[in-house]
Amino acid sequence: MADVTDRLESVTRSFPRALFYGAGSLTEMLTPACGVGDIVHADLDFARIEGRPSSAVFDEEASPFAAASFDLIVSLLTLHAVNDPVGALTQMRSALKPDGLLIAVLFAEETLKELRAALYASETDYAGGVSPRVAPFASVRDLGAVLQRAGFALPVADVDRVEVRYREPARLLRDLKGMGETCCLVHRGRGLRRDALAGAIETLAAASVATFDLVTLTGWAPHPRQQQPLKPGSATHSLAEAIRKF
User: Fold this and answer.
1) Domain containing residue 20: CATH number
2) Residue 230 is assigned to a structural domain of this protein
3) Would you state the pLDDT for residue 192?
4) How does 24-47 read in b/e, with b if 16+ C-beta sit within 10 Å?
5) What's the predicted TM-score (pTM) here?
6) 3-class DSSP state for residue 167?
7) Could you report the per-residue pLDDT of 118-152, keeping only the tens digit for each?
8) How far, in whole angstroms, is CA 157 from its chain's centroid?
9) Containing domain of residue 83, as a range?
10) For the chain, what is the domain count?
């Protein structure tokens, strides 16, 4: 949320009406420089927004909001678990007013790669096969393409890789459960054997690190005043000439 606050502070405009999905009490980190006015708090879990004056419980794939309802939409660590990211982002773009801003933070490609590798290797050794234990995460390139498919203008996707060190691998599993980030897959295959889990924990203890890729997506609802790419062939300067000169 601190990164979202920094990004909003760098935008030289105000957002009279905003929707924050999955942020909970973290909206209290917003500063006056962010320019955020009235906030609607939303989540799939009512407990996270209970007591908020303006709140809504809904699935991001089934938005209840009318078109052009918000100047700003922020989604915090929720979109990586949706079934249809293009559909969810398309509904967000529709709910934004023209020239409205979207900021979405989600886990991506290399997240929990150590845990995934340890579980796969251990299950292969002890069970003779593997089942999906860690949900797949999209790559940064794919997420940028999803923004474009959803109709956002000026799409940007950037990644911040965080490595968290654990003295005890079991603490990582407890933290994931506390975050609500256990495997979200409906079809997980066979149950995880205890000896396979013990082997994976032993492997993780040797690595003592867990990787999290945090991708931030930013995009704007289209508006005629926005910057537009030049038409092909309309350049007035030669790149080859510039290289020869400098």
Assistant:
1) 3.40.50.150
2) no
3) 72
4) beebeebeeebbbeebbbbbeeee
5) 0.82
6) coil
7) 887 887 877 777 677 777 888 999 999 999 999 99
8) 10
9) 2-223
10) 1
CA atoms of 230 and 235, how far apart (whole Å):
8
For 163-218, write each residue's pLDDT tens digit: 988 888 888 888 877 777 666 666 666 677 777 777 778 887 777 888 899 999 99
**Which of the 8 DSSP states describes residue 230?**
P
Find the farthest-apart pair of alpha carbons in the chain and give their distance in angstroms, rounded. Answer: 68
Q: For residue 168, what are the contacts with CB-CB under 8 A and spacing of at least 6? A: 205
Residue 73 and residue 71: Cα distance in Å, rounded? 7
Supply 213's token pair: 């890729």
Taking the CB of residue 52, how many other CB atoms lie within 10 A of it?
Answer: 17
For residue 94, name the pLDDT band (cuts at 50, 70, 90): very high
Does residue 31 form part of some domain? yes
| 40 close to 57: Cβ distance less than 8 angstroms | no
Q: How far is CA 149 from CA 4, 153, 217, in A?
A: 23, 10, 13
Residue 75 near residue 93, CB atoms below 8 Å: no
Identify the H or E element spanning 56: strand 55-57
The tokens for 159 are 């990644």
DSSP 59-117: -TTS--PPTT-EEEEEEES-GGG-S-HHHHHHHHHHHEEEEEEEEEEEE-TTTTHHHHH
Helix, strand, coil content of the chain in percent (nearest 5): 35, 25, 40
Host H or E run for residue 161: strand 153-165
* 5: three-class secondary structure by DSSP: helix
d(CA 191, CA 193): 6
**123 touches 235 (CB < 8 A):** no
Is residue 240 in a domain? no
